[in-house]
Amino acid sequence: MVEEAYIIDIREKEVFEQGHIVNAINIPWDEIRDRIDEIPKDRPVYIQCRSGQRSYNVVMALQHLGFDNIYNVSGGFMGLSFYEYYNDKTNNRNPIVTQYNFK
What we know:
alpha/beta, 4-stranded parallel sheet, 4 strands
């Protein structure tokens, strides 16, 4: 059985609602410490923000708290959107994001 990726989008709720990775969980970066129990320790977790900078900082903080299967989505939602938009259009596939946000 292949386990689905656990993705946490740390952008603010309003920004998350404008477009996010399908099945991503929204835990805004300023709520991480209060919602730490929602983050699984038994499987890989990918942290994502708009550019990759805040998610990198959250990854470092979680590693200091004992999480060892935590990964930063380098390039963030913007990088992923540009890359996946191209793939979606050239391969005619269903998007992996709810809506592209190139702003």
